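Summary for the funding panel

The consortium committed to producing paired sequence-structure records for every protein in the target list. Below we show the first two records in order, beginning with the earlier of the two.
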Amino acid sequence: MVTRFLLCITCAALAACGVKPQTVNELIIQNRTSEVVYEVKLKIPETGKVVSCSSILSGSECSLGFPERALQGNLANLSWQEDGVGYSRTLSAGNIAAVSDRPLHAVVVILPGGHLQAGLE
């Protein structure tokens, strides 16, 4: 009974305090293909904001630092040209729980054949 009461008090306290959302302060787009990728654009359709890099050399990256902001779970669309072929992929942060009390970097990795990896570091 006492354990259940303490558990209820703890849960109520956590709910009252709220959970701080995960924050990010940098976007890194890495090119892990054997080709230069061109016209790389990350667009957030909901806000209309766009980040772009004219080209990213093979084995290189394009990064953009910005003031710390909370992840909002908006969909993003990444498009690019690789070896004359255009690609477009949708990315989603979903409901990412806070994994750190410090801002992280959003990392998108362009892989050969139009594949992507994305995560937080």
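The next record, for a separate protein in the list, is shown here:
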Amino acid sequence: MRKAAPVATSIGTPPISCSERGRPKRRCYVTNAVKHFKFTPRGKRRIHAKPNAGEVQACAWWLAAELRLIKPKLAVALGATALYALLGRQAKVTRDRGTMLRSPDGLPVLVTIHPSALLRTLDQPDAELNRGRFVDDLKKIAEFLE
């Protein structure tokens, strides 16, 4: 029987293998900053719509409760919505990507893009560069936790 390689992906996202992340997935809790799926219908498809500030704030208590219960050593903000939920408007993905910031309560937060952003660059000349930068960002998780 062939053993499957673990990957971090969702439907339509280019897979990032665990070895590319720097270490196998061990104890990891994945959540969303906003707890509902907002979409725009387009034919038979549902196109994801970015939540507004009010929707992020409405779910803030839930995210805060999850963080209190889990007590993570590190949070990874995958994209602008997650970053806004964890750090507020002062943090920017484009400026802070690949850096480790601190939340108001002291939690280290690694800033990176959302994996779906890679899909938007697949047909662009810098697609491999973008993917490589994302993998480098994820490797910082293992470096931090060692």
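Regarding this second record: The longest strand covers residues 108-112. Confidence is low (pLDDT under 50) at residues 1-15.
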